[in-house]
Amino acid sequence: MSPRTILHLDMNAFFASVEQQANPELRGRPIAVIGSGGRTVITTASYEARKLGVKTGMAVWEAKRCCPEITLVVGDNRKYTWTSSRIVEMMKEYTPLVEVFSIDEAFLDLTASLGIFGTPERVAYLLKARIRHTFGLLCSIGIAPNKLLAKLASDMHKPDGLTIIRPEDVSRVMEHLPVGELCGIGRKMERHLNLMSIYTCGELGRCDVTRLSKKFGIIGTRLKEMGQGLDNSPVAPLEAEDEVKSVGHSMTLRQDISRREDILKYLLQLCEMVGRRARRYGVSGRTVTLHIRFADFYSGAGRQETLKRAVNLSNDIYRAAVAILDTLELPQPVRQLGVKLSNLEYQGGQLPLFPDERKKHEMVCAMDEVNNRFGDFTVTFGSLLAAEEKGSRVISPAWRPEGIRNVQVL
């Protein structure tokens, strides 16, 4: 099989760079994007701030200690998702095989497009120039025979880098590369490999697969292939993605809560967010899952309930979530809540048979139509009117510019 040509595009300090372009006064200055809550962390930092030690995930006080002159900017998720969607449209002009990996990175399979656009380097330079001219943003690009290596290449030179790993260079590149540099090998996996005296990808690629499988099970073979720089996974555009198995939302609260009425208020809001997404895409689910994380953020509780029929109305999801809540012990105040609807069924557009159910259906459709047109929670439940939260401030890694994974962010 002839080698593929895969391009990985990674936007540099995306959120911070978008904010700097939106506000010229921030350009060239150390800034960090944060959430709107009282206990937020650094979502991302500009390269000016990174040079001074500010890192993603840092507490605000830590960032200020590293960089007293840092400017903090509350994130604007609508701005980021709009920009990301426009960049994805731009990438699709070079190939229909575009896989959105996250809000600020994507894979492109250029194998069949090079007859039109020439070399992969030319496509990379065209994309970099167009993104910089249109949005004022920088990106780093990696080009390689597969997704694993393209992702690795894009991380090698930042910001504004372009790195190519050719098929004949793979073994040389992998020989002394630390295993933790590979996408898919996290810190915990790296520690386990180090305990086996495996520190580099070269050592991982030469390791006996039986030894790896004994330690890691069915992923042992995959780990050996990763160490050799092998990856046959296709670039999957949106329409080719696996069928969505669940619809969910989670919310980290601005302050820990213990009172049942406060928990129920946020639970209802989450159920409305989940139900609205499910209705938008014509799915219902039979299984409702509630997950709670406590104040220490390390312990939590959760359970799921499978219903007799599939539901997508917010009240039905809410009743199931409350029933689950009543079975759980809450030894600490609640810091995070999550609701998920799974075991999905795709439904047609048939109206309910009975008048009461039809009236309820028409009311919910009208409510959805108003909120779709004028913004989330324009029309909502009376008990939510005093709620301070307006949805999650975090963009899920599963975010996509289209389809059921296109979570409405606020």
Helix and strand topology:
Blueprint: E1 6-11, H1 14-22, E2 31-34, E3 42-45, H2 47-50, H3 60-66, E4 71-74, H4 77-91, E5 98-102, E6 105-109, H5 114-117, H6 120-135, E7 139-144, H7 147-154, E8 162-164, H8 170-175, H9 187-195, H10 201-206, H11 209-216, H12 220-227, E9 246-257, H13 260-280, E10 283-294, E11 300-311, H14 314-325, E12 334-346, H15 355-374
Helix pairs in contact: 11-12, 13-14
Which properties best describe this structure?
5-stranded mixed β-sheet; DNA polymerase, domain 1; Dna Ligase, domain 1; 410 residues; single chain; Alpha-Beta Plaits; 21% strand; alpha+beta; globular; 4-stranded antiparallel β-sheet
Order of helices and strands: EHEEHHEHEEHHEHEHHHHHEHEEHEH
Shape: globular
Supply Rg.
24 Å
Query: Percent range for helical residues?
Result: 25-40%
What is the CATH topology descriptor of the largest domain?
Alpha-Beta Plaits
Total beta strands: 12
Strand order of the largest sheet: 5-6-1-7-8
